[in-house]
């Protein structure tokens, strides 16, 4: 439910599979990492048929009816995806037809103008509470795996994907990366990421204008199970609704290109308030556009005083070193946290074992 933008529902696809047909907890992707660092993804197709008969008696006559139920799984083989040899979580979605006497809340959102304002507020509050609960689960999973997860948000055309591709290529050999891509339609951006050798899974939101925590939770098992790595979540291009939805990320990274207005932070304050990192992109175009970098930073910090700001050009590479250093530091912190948690858990187990031996 998103009464602000009127998002649609029932059209979300995770890796090309309708989200509502998926069985959570199972991954249908099998990732292999080759010696050259390239990730390779195999998806498989399974068909299951079940036949049973029903005998009905009408008066003195009996009739037998035979029913066949088929369950199919679609599979693709994705070429050229980078990095030792491993399998991701397995997830085999089954498409079943069921009859229910109740409705399931769909992914995405709907606009219902006939609903009272008070009811809309109540629904949106419940939606965000459910989203935040799943986001907490995502965040714990990221911590447990030492993943430094970033939610990249911006207007369409800010250069998110170009920046992402250059970042992954620059980190190759130093930091493992995986990407969850969000767009309304097409796998174009995921294909661009895969061309770098990094594993990527596409979420298509249909009429939806943002990712939510459940979409991320469904997409994550379709990626290889990396540890001590970077997870980039590229959100749908939109500076409104993504501000309200926590995905479990460590940071929201807002990307503002110099081809946009200097006053963009003032026009979209919720997003710049939710973000704690700002990348001003396409600075190579500054000689050709009317954009005041320093004033844009002043506006952004008026909204979010603690904002970390970096100026970059994904095209020329200018300013990228600061961004890469910041990313590597974040991965190291995530790794240290994971190792500390593991060590703490081992100590607790050892203490419990000692208590058992004393009994």
Summary?
Helices cover 32% and strands 23% of the residues. The protein is an alpha/beta fold and 359 residues long. Helix 1 packs parallel to helix 4.
Q: Can you describe this structure?
A:
It is a single chain. With 359 residues, the chain is α/β, with parallel strands linked by helices. The protein has 2 domains: 109 residues, no CATH class; 205 residues, P-loop containing nucleotide triphosphate hydrolases (Rossmann fold). The protein has 8 helices and 14 strands. A 9-stranded mixed sheet has the order 2-1-10-9-11-8-12-13-14, sandwiched between helices. Helix 1 packs parallel to helix 4. It is globular. The N and C termini lie far apart (55 Å). About 18% of the residues have low confidence.
Could you name the CATH homologous superfamily of the largest domain? P-loop containing nucleotide triphosphate hydrolases
Radius of gyration: 24 Å
Structural class: alpha/beta
Instruction: Tell me which CATH architecture of the largest domain applies here.
Output: 3-Layer(aba) Sandwich
Task: Give the topology.
Blueprint lengths: L12 E2 L2 E2 L10 E5 L5 E5 L3 E12 L2 E12 L4 E2 L38 H29 L1 E8 L5 H12 L5 E7 L4 H7 L5 E5 L8 H7 L9 E6 L16 E7 L6 H4 L1 H6 L2 E5 L11 H11 L4 E4 L8 H39 L1
Parallel strand pairs: 8-11, 8-12, 9-10, 9-11, 12-13, 13-14
Antiparallel strand pairs: 1-2, 1-10, 3-4, 4-7, 5-6
Helix pairs in contact: 1-4
């Amino acid at each position: 439910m998103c009464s602000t933008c009127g998002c649609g529902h029932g059209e979300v696809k995770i890796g090309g599979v309708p989200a509502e047909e998926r069985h959570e907890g199972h991954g249908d992707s099998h990732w292999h990492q080759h010696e050259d660092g390239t990730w390779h993804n195999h998806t498989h197709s399974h068909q299951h048929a079940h036949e049973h008969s029903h005998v009905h008696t009408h008066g003195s006559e009996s009739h037998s009816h035979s029913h066949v139920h088929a369950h199919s799984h679609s599979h693709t083989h994705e070429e050229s995806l980078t990095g030792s040899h491993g399998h991701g979580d397995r997830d085999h979605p089954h498409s079943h037809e069921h009859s229910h006497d109740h409705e399931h809340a769909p992914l995405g959102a709907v606009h219902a103008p006939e609903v009272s304002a008070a009811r809309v507020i109540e629904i949106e509050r419940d939606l965000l509470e459910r989203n935040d609960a799943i986001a907490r689960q995502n965040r714990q999973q990221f911590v447990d795996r030492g993943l430094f997860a970033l939610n990249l948000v911006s207007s369409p055309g800010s250069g998110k994907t170009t920046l992402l591709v250059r970042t992954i290529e620059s980190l190759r050999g130093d930091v493992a990366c995986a990407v969850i891509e969000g767009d309304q339609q097409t796998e174009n951006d995921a294909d661009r990421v895969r061309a770098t050798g990094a594993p990527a899974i596409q979420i298509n939101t249909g009429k939806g204008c943002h990712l939510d925590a459940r979409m991320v939770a469904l997409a994550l098992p379709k990626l290889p199970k990396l540890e001590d790595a970077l997870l980039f979540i590229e959100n749908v291009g939109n500076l409104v609704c993504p501000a309200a939805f926590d995905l479990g990320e460590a940071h929201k990274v807002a990307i503002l290109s110099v081809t946009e207005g200097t006053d963009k932070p003032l026009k979209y304050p919720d997003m710049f308030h939710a973000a704690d990192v700002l990348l001003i992109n396409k600075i190579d175009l500054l000689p050709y556009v009317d954009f005041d970098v320093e004033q844009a930073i002043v506006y952004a910090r008026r909204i979010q005083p603690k904002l970390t700001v970096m100026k970059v050009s994904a095209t020329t590479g200018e300013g990228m070193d600061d961004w890469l250093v910041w990313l590597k530091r974040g991965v190291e912190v995530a790794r240290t946290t994971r190792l500390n948690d593991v060590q703490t858990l081992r100590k607790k187990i050892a203490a419990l074992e000692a208590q058992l031996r004393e009994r």
